[in-house]
Amino acid sequence: METINLTIDGVTVETRKGATVLEAAQGAGIYIPTLCWDADLKPFGACRLCIVEIEGMRGLPTACTTPATNGMVVHTDTPQVNRVRRTTLELTAADHPGDCLTCSKNQRCDLQKVAAYLGIDAHRFKKIVRKHPVDKSNPFFYRDMNYCILCGKCVRTCDEVLGVNAITYAFRGFASEITAFGGQPILESNCVSCGECVVRCPVAALMPKQRVQPTREVKSVCPYCGVGCSIHLGVRGDQIVSVSGDREGPANKGRLCVKGRFGISEFVNHEERLTVPLIRKKGKLTEATWEEAIDVVANRLSEYKGGDGFATISSAKCTNEENYVIQKFARVVMGTNNIDHCARL
Fold it and tell me: Domain 130-211's class?
């Protein structure tokens, strides 16, 4: 990989050729505030908070859209840069609710984080409170546009990552908002409820309906299908309270579908979920050990070995390797070709 060298805040930084100034800074552990940037999305430059000074370049370019060049000298924390950033953020906060302590995004809000970094502790501009109705139509998350800062992450995610385009910008100027087609509730749009927009929203405009903070996370694999998406299960006590995608997962790169993100906790935590094997004895299901259950299954299957009285149907929830084992078991062990699969159509 071809690399280049540039200087950021007096530190010599090596980065790949073609990287932006923001990517170079992040790779070197240098913080540049931003509200609209995301590693999975094209640079947008909407929030104007990642502006920097670059020697020999006019104005204050945005670091997320400016390509890094060899020998470039960048200053990210000058009085002029921070003065413009503070004004920009103060204007953004002027029509943003100020209920940080009771906000569901408190301590996890990017707007809050940037405000703390810039030292904003008072409102310089007159507060204007918007009155958008909260869209609760989706069964998995809320859309509260009163908190929206128009960063565009949700719109771009739905377009660039999903290709669904369920939401877009509407109107102009102060009246601008993000909405589904015709202003209809999100449930009536072509939204697939994947939640990719929710996990990227920097504020509380998009929030899951189940909002319990986990005490720990466990790395696992989503059981819903055979793709093998890597996930992190948020656990509190003996309950799964959240599911997030693992960005290092080779199959999903951090992305999840609606079942993986919102469905796992529902069926795992369900009160009717079986947690131990049950064997029918004298017409009544009773708890048993796994060894007892496996012995019962093996003995019953042996009665149908070598005949047409046995058939197997496999599942798309299994991996290719598991499906191979199932058909091998049917043909070699049970001696039958009566094999089917739920995804054969």
Answer: alpha beta
